TrEMBL record:
EAL domain segment(s): 505-758
CDD domains hit by this protein: EAL (cd01948), GGDEF (cd01949), PAS (cd00130)
Chain ranges of the PAC domain: 103-153, 279-331
Pfam families recorded: EAL, GGDEF, PAS_3
Cited InterPro entries: Biofilm_reg_signaling, EAL_dom, EAL_sf, GGDEF_dom, Nucleotide_cyclase, PAC, PAS, PAS-assoc_C
PROSITE patterns: EAL, GGDEF, PAC, PAS
Protein's name according to its UniProt entry: PAS domain S-box-containing protein/diguanylate cyclase (GGDEF)-like protein
Chain coiled-coil ranges: 141-210
Length: 758
């Protein structure tokens, strides 16, 4: 069908004609704009977000080496714009349609003719029929870059020149300051020279006054002429009649003590030969009164160009008082000031020398370690002043009973060591040890007191009991402790079994410090039985130690060590808390008719806060005090001090019962019993064991009678046979305890025994 506008109505024909004109105009406009974009001296590239080129202008084609393909869409934008630039463009452009944000960046680009230029890219997003395009417009800014670079170089050069000028100016300023300082220094030097000249006469006068007023004797010796100037002080000391002395060497040495002359001359020559920086020597001189004084002589020599000493000057200081003090301190370092006996260091040197002689001569020597048995009691009860007097008397007695070649040393508070060199046989040692014990058997009178003192002696023989001085002394010490264990007031020779026992004790001492921390302690409970009713009226808590290697260890082995190291305080607190907690548990089970008893060490009672600790434990566990009994030994009564008295009184006020354990084995005084209103006494097992002996039965009768007269209960421990029980019942004993009824039991076994009854 032929499109013929003539057939259209006039109105429609007019619209078509206008449309054709519009289209023609738009095409003309598009061609005009296209020529502008195609020939404009800038890069114009339109590309999609996936990196494909949609269109670029002719200028871009002319200057960049692009391989044109049939389909322009197959060209990747990275062939025109570097990949890192397109990546940054994608990161920075905002793709939202409602925001007109643009992004610009720049980068160097190499053209097809080899030139490198800088391009400033302006980038934006356009939308066409739902598709997104990036329009990147690049402008050559190479000239601008070059201009910027030249400007920067010019600025750098200008800055460097400015810094150089400033440095030169600073240098000139410093030079000017130095000139000013030099002028001031010259002026000050002139002033100082003038001042020195003015003071020269003053200095000479001052030197004269110093020489005349000094406590030291001053001297100035001309070695060429052998003449010396000596100050008034030095002249008066040695009794010379003039200050200028000729033949000074001969005159000076005449006053030196003969034994010191060699040392003085040697020290002088050492300095004059430049082997020492100063002349320094201590020596004795004879004064004009005929006595000797110690002086400290100091000096400094002057040498000529050939290195020869031509002059020496110095001073002499009287150091007699210092020497006396040094001698006294030296004596105090090696000798005991109380007894005047040698200390341990002197003893060890003597034993070492005696061992060396014995090796050469094939002889023996003996070391006796002596320790007083009851010195602490005397010292605490009568005071340290009395104890010191006792030690001085014992030291004299020990010295008097020894040979001239023997030696006695005080090595500790109440410990003495005796060295017997060159002994023929053990009989010689026996005689000396027996003589010492005999001395102790005689009362020693101090002021108004007659003191009964005994001693324990340990003996070690070289070479039988040790090859060195340390081994011999150590083994004598071990033997002494064995003598104490075997009843005191005796002597014991060392043997190998003692060493193993000592090593065992050392192991116990070492491991005991960790036993509480590692929960190695546990308690057993031994019942106390009423002899009339046969019922259990108490449980004594007994401490045991489960050693990880040695098994269960008896308190006999570790309690003395715990007391010695003061660990008994923390261990004892653990025992108290554990026993009270166990008694509370039994109360909660409904068992009310018996008490729990705990042994307490004297060290615990001497601790000022002990009573408070006991009360705090009872309050913490919520246990009534009437269920707790504390067992103390008679030693506590003998060693009672203010802290012990206060603790016992506070405990009694709190309702805790106090039982005196092991009654009858110590030399206790009944006046101490008046201080402590005990709630009961326990007869020591040693009397019960041999109760068939009349003397023991009489002692038990007396103890029970005493207890009943004091209206307190009496318990006998160590009951193992029916015969012993019958005798105790006959004597009127109130309670008994021992293996006849039960061994110490674990808590569950103990409560089973109460449930079954006796």
């Amino acid at each position: 069908m032929v499109n013929d506008n003539r057939k259209l109505p006039n109105k429609n024909r007019s619209f078509v004609e206008k449309s054709k004109k519009t289209i023609t105009y738009l095409k003309t406009k598009e061609e005009f704009l296209s020529r502008i974009f195609e020939n404009e001296q800038m890069f114009i590239v339109v590309w999609t977000l996936d990196g494909k080129v949609a269109w670029f202008n002719r200028y871009t084609l002319d200057v960049i080496d692009i391989a044109i393909e049939e389909k322009i869409e197959s060209i990747d934008v990275s062939t025109i714009i570097p990949l890192e630039i397109t990546s940054r463009i994608k990161e920075h452009l905002d793709y939202s349609e409602d925001r007109g944000i643009r992004y610009k960046c720049e980068n160097p680009m190499v053209l097809k003719d080899g030139r490198q230029i800088y391009i400033m890219w302006y980038n934006s997003i356009i939308y066409d029929e739902g598709s997104k395009y990036v329009v990147s417009t690049g402008i050559d800014i190479t000239d601008l870059k070059n201009a910027e670079r030249k400007l920067e170089e010019a600025n750098s050069n200008l800055l460097a020149l400015n810094e150089e000028l400033m440095a030169q100016q600073e240098e000139l300023y410093k030079m000017n300051e130095e000139l000013i300082a030099q002028e001031e220094e010259l002026r000050q030097n002139l002033i100082e020279i003038q001042r020195q000249q003015d003071e020269l006469e003053e200095s000479r006068e001052r030197y004269r006054l110093v020489v005349e007023g000094a406590s030291d004797g001053l001297w100035d010796w001309d070695l060429i002429t052998d003449t010396a100037y000596i100050s008034e002080k030095w002249k008066d000391i040695i009794g010379l009649d003039k200050e200028l002395v000729n033949n000074y060497y001969e005159t000076w040495t005449k006053y030196i003590h003969p034994r010191d002359v060699k040392t003085v001359i040697n020290n002088l020559h050492m300095h004059l030969e430049k082997k020492t920086p100063f002349y320094l020597c201590e020596y004795r001189v004879k004064t004009k009164e005929g006595r000797c004084v110690w002086i400290l002589s100091r000096g400094k020599a002057l040498w000529n160009e050939e290195g020869r000493a031509i002059r020496i000057a110095g001073s002499n200081t009287d150091i007699s008082e210092r020497k006396q003090m040094e001698s006294k301190l030296k004596y105090m370092a090696y000798y005991d000031p109380l007894t005047d006996l040698p200390r341990r260091d002197v003893l060890m040197d003597r034993i070492k020398a005696a061992v060396a002689d014995a090796k050469v001569n094939g002889n023996k020597l003996a070391v006796l370690f002596v320790d007083l048995d009851n010195f602490k009691t005397i010292n605490d009860s009568l005071g340290h002043h009395t104890g010191d007097k006792l030690l001085k008397k014992i030291a004299k007695k020990l010295t008097m009973c020894l040979r001239e070649s023997d030696m006695v040393s005080r090595v500790g508070g109440d410990e003495f060591v005796i060295l017997l060199p060159d002994i023929i046989s053990v009989d010689d040692t026996d005689k000396v040890a027996s003589g010492i014990l005999e001395l102790f058997n005689q009362p020693i009178k101090i002021n108004s007191h007659e003191l009964d003192v005994t001693g324990s002696i340990g003996i070690a023989i070289y070479p039988d009991h040790g090859k060195s001085e340390r081994a011999i002394l150590k083994n004598a010490d071990i033997a002494m402790y064995k003598a104490k264990e075997r009843g005191k007031n005796s002597f014991q020779y060392f043997d190998k079994t003692m060493k193993s026992e000592a090593e065992f004790a050392k192991t116990i001492k070492r491991d005991l410090s960790l036993a509480l921390e590692k929960n190695q302690f546990f308690l057993l409970y031994q019942p106390l039985v009423d002899v009339k009713t046969g019922k259990v009226v108490g449980m004594e808590a007994l401490l045991r130690w489960q050693h990880p290697k040695k098994g269960v260890i008896s308190p006999f082995h570790f309690i003395p060590i715990a007391e010695e190291t003061r660990q008994i305080i923390s261990i004892g607190e653990w025992v108290l808390r554990t026993a009270c907690r166990q008694r509370k548990e039994w109360l909660n089970m409904g068992y009310f008719d018996f008490s729990i008893s705990v042994n307490v060490s004297v060290h615990q009672l001497q601790w000022p806060d002990f009573a408070k600790v006991v009360c705090d434990i009872l309050n913490e566990i919520e246990l009534e005090s009437r269920y707790l009994e504390l067992e103390i030994t008679e030693t506590v009564l003998l060693e009672s001090v203010d802290a012990v008295v206060k603790n016992l009184c506070h405990l009694k006020e709190a309702g805790v019962k106090i039982i005196i354990d092991d009654f009858g084995i110590e030399n206790s005084s009944f006046r101490y019993m008046q201080k402590f209103k005990a709630d009961g006494i326990k007869i020591d097992r040693s009397f019960v064991r041999d109760i068939n002996l009349d003397v023991n039965k009489a002692i038990i009768d007396a103890i029970i009678l005493l207890g009943h007269r004091m209206k307190i209960g009496v318990t006998a421990e160590g009951v193992e046979t029916r015969e012993q029980l019958d005798c105790l019942i006959e004597c009127g004993c109130d309670e008994v305890q021992g293996y006849y009824f039960s061994k110490p039991l674990f808590p569950d076994e103990a409560i089973q025994m109460i449930q079954k009854g006796l």
